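Before going further, learn to read the protein records used in this course. The integers have meaning only within a learned vocabulary of local backbone shapes. To see the layout at work, look at the sequence and tokens printed below.
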Amino acid sequence: MNSLFHKAIADLEFTTVCEQIALLCHTEKGRDLVKDLPIYFSESEVFQALSYSSEYLSSFDNENRIPNHGFEPINEELSLLRIENTAIEPEGFQRIAQVCELFEAHHKFFKKFNDYYPTLSTRLDALVYQPEIKKQIALVIDRFGVIKSNASPVLIDLRRSINEVRSKINQSFGAALNQYTKLDYLDEIRESVIENQRVLAVKSMYRRKVKGSLLGNSKTGSIVYILPESTQKYSRDLADLVYEETQEIRRILVELTNFIRPSKRDIELYVDYLVHTDVIAAKAKYGQKIGGIMPTLNNGRRLFLKDAYHPLLLLQNKKENRLTKPQTIELHPENRIIVISGPNAGGKSITLKTVGLLQLMLQAGVLIPVHRASTVCLFENFLTDIGDNQSIENHLSTYSYRLKNMRQFLHKCDDTTLFLIDEFGTGSDPELGGALAEVFLEEFYERLAYGVITTHYSNLKLLANELAHATNANMLFDNSSLEPTYQLVLGEAGSSFTFEVAEKNGIPYRFLNRAKKKIEGGKVRFDQTIAKLQKERSKMTKTESVLEEQSKRAKSEAEKLEKLNEKLDDKLKNYQQLYDYHQRMIQLGQKLDELSERYFVDQKKRNLIGSLIHLVETENSKRKKKNVETVKNERKSKQAQESELKDDLKTLPVTKNAVVKKKVKAKPDISSFKVGDKVRLEDSKSTGTIDTIEKEIATVNYGMFTTKVHLSKLEKH
């Protein structure tokens, strides 16, 4: 990376983001890598890095959590594997086994859940798991880091002998302890431990009467510590056996080290995989903290950041329970450069830094806090000039330093460049500095570079308005309080509100008027016009907000009415079905009444029973396609509908003026009905045929039964 790129990383505080991500790492190597995150410039690399972070982030919200990846460093062990005939300590083998175990868990996991994590799974495609490493270590070393006795036949024999000798030492020492206790040669403490050996605590006056080796005495000299003679021989044997055990363990460790030495490269790859997993996991955790997502990548040279947050500001405000306002900004071939103007402390610099920092994060594979509708392109050059760049060590003024930067910018600037310049043109005479800044801006424009600049210079605002593929923007201010709203508005320049802010801060009018007289009237009018436009914009924004709120309320009410309409429509349909059902029951009742009347006249039971059976069979023929359970459910449904109808009728307002509205249909002329007409009862769906008409009473034939109805109750089908 060139010096300008390093300067951009520093200016945009990308290193601070890296430091925050590093705190989320589990491994030291992971932290070191994150502190110097690489910036990618190819679409495939950026897409892959972002996909890693995005897929890992998704694991936080499902049951298939990615296995742990934290491990203790094995740098020393890997160094020993490079040197022949060296031995790794048991604790080192435990750490190597841990690395192998973690890698094995990841290998199995991503093989099983490849569909969930397609990009992360590809990281294991070129890696082969060697189960023999962990298996061989487990045969030699137990989970406590102790060499197993069955690691070799020699070690089994040695440890058996050691245990036997220790038993004899304890027996002989116990006998001597009892003997000299009875003779009252021992102090109250009776025994102690010196050089990892049990010794007798003998009163100094009896030291010559106790046979053995003198190993020390107390500070006062009243006690001497003696190893009993009967125990000495066994102690020498134990020392010899322990030495042989140490040599055998050394031989076993050398042998085990030699066994896994050919797998050194595999172990290094496992470590590398786990370290990079640690980096990906830290990026995902950081993305979760800032609400980061993976936006769409495009190759159409379009940078559209919707509802974008500056991550450092967002986290700081969260800590202080303060609101952070997002910004929406767009650069594309038809609008490559944005000139942001407006008063200080309005958020211009934060907006500029947000664009640059999010772009660097994105190209480093870090998820960014933007809306999912955002889309981004990639840049190869990042040129920044932000903040007070006075160079004390080089004795350069701010303006000289900036001119030096501009010279470097002119060497590097092209159509793959994103330039970000804060307070463009300041540091020199406004007229001369502004003119030079105008020339620089024209040059950047001609080279098809993309950029965002902030300025107070009117000539740069005018230039942005004249250039076809550049635009002005301003940070919105409240027109009454002159407080910033931190909202970016594209399409118009911003006023510095110089005199308005001065007036608000108590500067007397006479000073303001004198100041206005000292500058050109055109400039004052220009700034006042911009200020007026911004105030109008503020009013329009508030009006728009009110209208939007009213629109939302109206939409909500419309949705409620729509739902009520649907509910009423459903009720009407149910009532119509219930009405048809009741009409059918009336017709059946009329049929039964006719049968009853006929029986009353002729007293013929057989005819009555036959007619009744025929009537029942006719009705049941309609139910043949339904099972018993369906019929029962329909009956229950009708009963429920009747109950609901009664409840609804109870809730109707009962007043003398109450009117139930319904559709009014034109009554047909009863004289127009004739035999053979197809008719139906009012509000009924059942159709019948008129058989006879006598004195305005029609006999209507429904096929299975007939009924007599007044003509006024009928309507033609």
About this structure: The first strand starts at residue 186 and ends at 194. The two ends are 89 Å apart (CA to CA).
